[in-house]
Write a structure and sequence with these properties.
Elements (H helix, E strand, L loop, with lengths): L7 E3 L12 E3 L9 E3 L4 H11 L5 H20 L4 E7 L5 E7 L2 E8 L6 H7 L4 E9 L6 E7 L7 E6 L2 E2 L3 H12 L7 E8 L1 H10 L4 E7 L2 E2 L5 E2 L5 H6 L2
Parallel strand pairs: 3-12, 6-7, 6-9, 9-11, 10-11, 11-12
Antiparallel strand pairs: 1-2, 4-5, 7-8, 13-14
Helix pairs in contact: 1-2, 2-3
The protein binds uracil.
Cofactor: Mg(2+)
Pathway: Pyrimidine metabolism; UMP biosynthesis via salvage pathway; UMP from uracil: step 1/1
GO molecular function: GTP binding; uracil phosphoribosyltransferase activity
């Protein structure tokens, strides 16, 4: 059953009349211009339907999550600057193209963010990957930095920050503080995320207006335990253990 206020859209190829297309819940539209939401294509909606389903087992969850992660990385790369690059083809003609010149690295927020490392490696061969572990401090109930291992030259790199679920944004905000404290300019950080809550996206985008967020979907909201709804449950559990 669909949720009140959830945006619904006809999903399918253009040649199909809207009346013949299936309807599905699509991403909430949000005003933050530094948040890019992937196009709500029938493919993406079908992939999200698979991973949201509580009856989807671990092997399928991993397979379909990886396909979405791949889309996020490919879109993320579009947000990096390129320079002109002309080449000669085997038939002797010139092609005026572009190339990416900067250095990049990934930084995963443990544990769930590590699930996105392979997708990043599949697009960026031998990419350096750092890690940050942030957990809730039992005494203060606030996020606390427990561990980080980052490339020593991270200040000279574009950083793809990886975390699949943006709920309240507590850990991701702290992760960005850590990156900035190591000299990474805010506008050199791209946060790649599968599902965001509107609250999380807003907190993040307002606190770091120069940072870009690429997400597959902005969901309806958070429940009383700060799970994203309708969401997909605990991403790390479903990817690593269930
Ligand atoms: N983290 C998850 O894995 N799921 C949520 O719904 C929120 C945070």
């Amino acid at each position: 059953d669909s949720q009140p206020g959830a945006p619904s859209q006809s999903v399918g190829p253009e040649y199909q009349p809207a009346t013949q297309k299936p309807k599905a819940t699509v991403s909430t539209v949000i005003p933050q211009s530094n948040v890019t939401i992937l196009p709500q294509t029938s493919q993406l909606i079908a992939l999200l339907t698979m991973i949201r389903d509580k009856n989807t087992g671990r092997a399928d969850f991993i397979f379909y999550s990886n396909r979405i992660i791949r889309l996020l990385v490919e879109e993320g790369l579009n947000h990096l600057p390129t320079v002109e690059h002309s080449i000669t083809t085997p038939v002797g003609r010139t092609y005026s193209g572009v190339k990416f010149e900067g250095k990049i690295c990934g930084v995963s927020i443990m544990r769930a963010g590590e699930s996105m490392e392979e997708g990043l490696r599949n697009c960026c061969r031998s990419v350096r990957i750092g890690k940050i572990l942030i957990q809730r401090d039992e005494e203060t109930a606030k996020p606390k930095l427990y561990y980080d291992k980052l490339p020593e030259d991270i200040a000279d790199r574009w950083v793809m920050l990886l975390d699949p679920m943006l709920a309240t944004g507590g850990s991701a905000l702290m992760a960005v503080d850590v990156l900035k404290s190591r000299g990474v300019p805010e506008d050199h950080i791209l946060f790649l995320n599968l599902i965001a809550s509107p609250e999380g996206a807003k907190n993040f985008a307002e606190r770091f207006p120069k940072l870009r967020v690429v997400t597959a979907f902005v969901d309806q909201g958070l429940d009383e335990k700060n799970y994203i709804v309708p969401g997909l449950g605990d991403f790390g559990d479903r990817f690593y253990t269930m």
